[in-house]
Amino acid sequence: DAEITQSPRHKITETGRQVTLACHQTWNHNNMFWYRQDLGHGLRLIHYSYGVQDTNKGEVSDGYSVSRSNTEDLPLTLESAASSQTSVYFCASSVTATGELFFGEGSRLTVL
Amino acid sequence: DAKTTQPNSMESNEEEPVHLPCNHSTISGTDYIHWYRQLPSQGPEYVIHGLTSNVNNRMASLAIAEDRKSSTLILHRATLRDAAVYYCILTTQGGSEKLVFGKGTKLTVNP
Predict the structure, then answer these.
(1) Cβ–Cβ pairs < 8 A, chains A and B
(2) Contact between residue B86 and residue B107 where contact means Cβ atoms under 8 Å apart
(3) Which chain B residue shows the shortest CA-CA distance from A55?
(4) What does the longest C-alpha to C-alpha distance in chain B come to?
(5) pLDDT tens column, A63-94
(6) Chain B closest-CA separation from residue A71 CA (Å)
(7) Which of A37, A96, B10, B90 falls between 20 and 30 A from B104, CA-CA?
(8) Do A40 and B45 touch (CB under 8 A)?
(9) Does A42 have pLDDT greater than 90?
């Protein structure tokens, strides 16, 4: 079955280190998204992409970057991790720009 | 951006219907109403969406007020597995990047 997978599911890192969270989907969806979710809050959009070589900033993009070199993958990079980036990160994809979002299981990141 | 208002929490009993309300008084004519839910320790999952007419699918029904300023997600027979946070979201102009997830309604289902 087609799916969307995130890795790692759990990661602990130190302040200042570079971290990359992987997101891979096998549906061949053009649209991919990264969200973060903090305790007691809803999801906030970090970056999104509507196709290969296309990337856009979301609501909380500072300190994060993405690249889209193929349809299947949208890795999220924290260039210099900060404690404020401790969160659960969700990747999602969709067929159309306004269509149903399919979410991954999430990656829990702790920055010490 | 159009916003939604939902109760912070609701409680239901197993096998009873559940009506989850959502107010969106500033909705525009082209905004779709989406519902997602998030089970504990999982990513959100799509439940249903609609524009003007009531909608049904295998998971739930969506009842939209005639003036579109409110809507209700209906779970016809709640199960323990339906315990989750339910998000009512509007798609403003543009694509899925405009989906704004608020805090949602935490639904507790009692056995």
Answers:
(1) 56
(2) yes
(3) B97
(4) 41
(5) 999 999 999 999 999 999 999 999 999 999 99
(6) 17
(7) A96
(8) no
(9) no
